[in-house]
Hints:
With 207 residues, this protein is an alpha/beta fold. The chain folds into two domains: 7-108, 3-Layer(aba) Sandwich (Rossmann fold), CATH 3.40.50; 115-148 and 158-201, Rossmann fold (3-Layer(aba) Sandwich). The protein has seven helices and seven strands, in the order E-H-E-H-E-H-E-H-E-H-E-E-H-H. It has helices spanning 19-30, 48-55, 71-84, 101-106, 130-138, 174-197, 203-206, and strands spanning 9-13, 36-42, 60-62, 89-92, 111-115, 143-150, 160-167. The protein has a seven-stranded mixed sheet with strand order 3-2-1-4-5-6-7, sandwiched between helices. It is globular, with a radius of gyration of 16 Å. The chain starts with 8 loop residues before the first strand and ends with a helix. Bound molecules: 5-O-phosphono-beta-D-ribofuranosylamine (GRF). 5-O-phosphono-beta-D-ribofuranosylamine (GRF) binds next to helix 1, strand 5 and helix 6.
Amino acid sequence: MTLLPQRPRLGFFVSHRGSNMRAIVSACKAGGLNAEPAVLISNNRNSAALVWAAENDLAHIHLSPKSVSSEEALDQAHLDALLNANVDLIILAGYMRKIGTKVLSAFSNRILNIHPALLPMYGGQGMYGSRVHKAVIANRETESGVTVHLVDDDYDTGAVVGQAKVPVLPADTPEDLAARVLAQEHLFFSEMLIRIVSGEINLDDLG
Ligand code: GRF
């Protein structure tokens, strides 16, 4: 894969709320993260992320299996949208679907996901949202956290880029833990991106 440019262009995939995307866009605007939010792709036409993008002048596109003829066509439409926006780095931030093979091979080692637990624990298909935090609490873990990882063709299995821990407190409800983890995500994803853009972390050494 070619080197990242000095100021990479970011392509976001988000299905729902988009708070991680907003935190990253804020870090770009504040200047701490030298990257350019380029486009948001969402499979959910009613997502808060799409509404926010429309209100904040971020190019956005709704693409779902229903809007095209097949998964292969969806994969191609994703690729076209990413190439049209000159995206260098793809950020999955709460995207509930798998990425297709065309995008995976065109953006090899250039797709990042954030997961609200310390992978490889509490990951895989069906492990998302409150299910993760409920399982962590049910197992009486004393710590959980955040994982930023490269994306491959399975759920949550790509090489780990970085992890940050948060405590699990004895009286935590899943909602308490979710809030603590999410606050950490909002800081940590941008921190990882800053280290990637500066060259301190080389994604090609990981994948
Ligand atoms: C985050 O908890 C992230 O770890 C997971 O999905 C959630 C997305 O939240 N992959 P938001 O849409 O960024 O608010």
